[in-house]
Amino acid sequence: MKKLIIIKYGELSTKKKNIKFFITTLKENIESSLKGLDYNIKYDFGRMFIYSNELETVLEKLKYVFGIHEIMLGYELDTNDIDSIKENVLNLLKNKTFKTFKVITKRQNKKYPIKSMEISNILGGTILKGIKDIKVDVKNPELKVYIEIRNETSYIYFDAHSGIKGYPVGVQGKALLMLSGGIDSPVAGYLAMKRGIRIEAVYFDSPPYTSREALEKVKTLSKILSRYSGYIKLHVVPFTEIQNQIRGNIPAEYLVTIMRRMMYRITERLMKSINGKVIVNGESIGQVASQTLTSMVVINDVVSTPVIRPVACLDKLEIIDIAKKIDTYETSILPYEDCCTIFVPTHPVINPSIEKATLYENRFDYENLIKDAIKNTKIIKLSPNDKGEFDELI
Ligand code: ATP
Ligand code: MG
Predict the structure, then answer these.
(1) Mean pLDDT of all residues in 295-319
(2) Ligand 2 center to residue 319 CA distance, Å?
């Protein structure tokens, strides 16, 4: 009997046509999350099996891989002979304390001579006979004994850990995430990855208005997000000159509108340069002046790329709940200013018009400034590593 991890991938099975691509991507993502560990992985009809001497560590890493529905720590027998299963189940149960139980059998090998229900009954009988003072409870058992019968092997397990579900990162292609140091955009990135989108991130850096720490914060957030995708490439755009021109030329109430139109323009171009398909950001309807529907229309007007806003319809508290769950919250609330908070006027316009925005921004030569900003953009590749330090490749 060999101890191993069994992986179930739920939602995937509904995507019949793409199944091969999904499975290959999932396997690659699992391999990338287990880099550096000693393990073997095997695929067989609807399951993946992982063998390793460090199963607990493997299990922890797998909790970050999208596309995994359930993770089971279990045992493999190199036979599906019913007597061997009986004997091994009894041996395993001797170390467990429980009063009630239930056997659940799945038969992947449909040619197997005994039906699932009957296997459960046979094993139930064996367990009742072999262990004292226990009984069967099909509704609410203290212990569930799972048996899976395959062509030449069988599996026994008791615990199923929930995976994070979703689709494997990469099956939907790539997007560029506008990542500020705030609470919303990391959550937006997480939710986009959950749908199978590979994320690269862009941050608009405005030193000296924004500090070195603000940039470090965005790097830390990228690193936390990279747990779900193996790595994240962060594009750091020098935005100071554009900010200066905006401040010098644009009426206060339109500062934010124009600043965000510039960010969108740059994001779209960078996105195309990395073969991305869409932009993702953390805008949430009504949260601030630049996120009223009218503002969104005026800001969105400068790009033709779809903008996905995963948190658009969530309440702040709902976003915070996710941020806490994915571990970005503590970093996001560190008190470093971002470029938006510094330039927010007392009364930003909540009903801007495209005509006025266009008129104001044509007061300076933004096209050349945008080209310069893109030319001087730096890319940092961030991945999680055990020491908690950054792997930086510029
Ligand atoms: P967040 O909490 O994500 O910062 P917010 O509520 O503070 O969002 P805004 O500051 O208006 O809202 O920003 C809206 C969205 O624009 C952010 O979620 C992010 O996607 C993007 N964004 C804002 N500032 C930057 C920046 N400096 N670099 C990259 N993206 C940014
Ligand atoms: Mg912000």
Answers:
(1) 97
(2) 13
Higher pLDDT, 394 or 231: 231
| Whether the predicted pLDDT of 102 surpasses 60 | yes
| CB-CB contact of 203 with 235 (8 Å) | yes
Ligand 1: which of 176, 177, 178 to mutate, most ligand atoms within 8 Å of CB? 178
User: Domains, the chain, ranges and CATH?
Assistant: 2-162 (3.30.2130.30), 174-393 (3.40.50.620)
Beta-strand relationship, 143-149 and 70-77: unpaired
Q: How far is CA 233 from CA 198, 209, 274, 310, 369, in A?
A: 10, 24, 10, 20, 23
Q: Contact, 145 vs 104, CB < 8 A?
A: yes
Query: For residue 343, what pLDDT is reported?
Result: 65
Ligand 1 contact, 287 CB (< 6 A): yes
Which residue type occupies 248?
G
The residue whose CA is least distant from atom 11 of ligand 1 is: 290
CB distance 183 to ligand 1 below 6 Å: yes
Tell me how far the alpha carbon of residue 186 lies from the centroid of ligand 1, in angstroms.
10
Say what the pTM is.
Answer: 0.91
For ligand 1, atom 22: residue with the closest CA: 180
Give one DSSP letter per residue of 211-238, joined into a string. -HHHHHHHHHHHHHHHTTTS-EEEEEEE
How would residue 18 be classed by pLDDT, with cut points 50, 70 and 90? confident
Give residue 370's pLDDT.
98
User: Sorting pLDDT into bands at 50, 70 and 90, what band is 390?
Assistant: very low
How far apart (Å, rounded) are the C-alpha atoms in residues 5 and 74?
6
Q: Is 288 in the pocket of ligand 1 (CB under 6 A)?
A: yes
